């Protein structure tokens, strides 16, 4: 996924089906300059992590 699409999903009011390394995630924030996204697993919303947007996949 590219940073622009990740930002669109992050800003949307609808929940998108996005995975990171096979796990369903929620995108909290996207830094388009660095290409990083702050995400958390749907199963563990308290465990936030920063990943490259290229590791995100829209289903």
TrEMBL record:
<keyword id="KW-0749">Sporulation</keyword>
<dbReference type="Pfam" id="PF08141">
    <property type="entry name" value="SspH"/>
</dbReference>
<feature type="region of interest" description="Disordered">
    <location>
        <begin position="40"/>
        <end position="59"/>
    </location>
</feature>
<protein>
    <submittedName>
        <fullName>Small acid-soluble spore protein H (Minor)</fullName>
    </submittedName>
</protein>
<comment type="similarity">
    <text>Belongs to the SspH family.</text>
</comment>
<dbReference type="InterPro" id="IPR012610">
    <property type="entry name" value="SASP_SspH"/>
</dbReference>
């Amino acid at each position: 996924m590219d940073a622009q699409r990740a930002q669109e999903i992050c800003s949307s009011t609808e929940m998108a089906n996005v995975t990171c390394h096979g796990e369903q995630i929620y995108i909290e924030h996207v830094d388009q300059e660095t290409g990083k996204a702050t995400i958390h697993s749907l199963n563990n919303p308290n465990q936030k992590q920063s990943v490259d947007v290229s590791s995100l996949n829209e289903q």
